[in-house]
Design brief:
The chain has one domain. The longest helix is centred in the middle third of the chain and has 25 residues. Helix 1 packs antiparallel against helix 6, helix 3 packs antiparallel against helix 4 and helix 5 packs antiparallel against helix 6. It is mostly helical. Helices cover 71% and strands 3% of the residues.
């Protein structure tokens, strides 16, 4: 599977889950478009969680949609995908990254509020771990030609 030039190309273009988590945190994201967008999504989710004004929340959500679209546009431009026989994934990569950013922010907020040992903290970090595993599986399946990302 990994010997195929297209597979290797896809695997080298898409960031790994740990790279995304570093970008959410604000580390090592400047050099890649997708990671910069991922960092911006995490910042927006942090701001969104702190705001009570519905107008500001709506503005943040509009910016999030723009960033998700930016990721999806980048994917269409930069990512060669197998088309024949591949199932279409239910979500765009931008939507997946946005969900991961939201979960990362929430998990960090809960650990800060409830402490590392709480059931609530465990629940949120477990959810984030599931999303990380799902993202990793998605990258492997896209690289292997079993799944393709939806066209925008």
């Amino acid at each position: 599977m990994w010997g195929d030039p297209m597979t290797m190309s896809i695997a080298s273009v898409l960031p790994t889950a740990p790279q995304l988590l570093c970008a959410f945190q604000g580390r090592r994201f400047q050099d890649r478009v997708l990671l910069r967008s991922a960092h911006a999504l995490a910042e927006l989710h942090e701001r969104r969680a702190e705001i009570g004004d519905s107008l500001l929340v709506a503005e943040i959500d509009c910016r999030r949609i723009e960033l998700v679209d930016d990721i999806n546009d980048w994917v269409e431009q930069e990512l060669p995908q197998h088309r024949s026989g591949a199932l279409v994934h239910t979500e765009s990569l931008g939507a997946v990254v946005d969900r991961m950013a939201r979960s990362w922010v929430k998990a960090n907020q809960v650990i800060d509020h409830d402490g590392a040992g709480s059931d609530n903290t465990h629940k949120h970090w477990y959810h984030l771990a599931e999303l990380v595993d799902g993202y990793t599986d998605l990258v492997i399946d896209v690289a292997g030609g079993r799944i393709r990302l939806p066209e925008q």
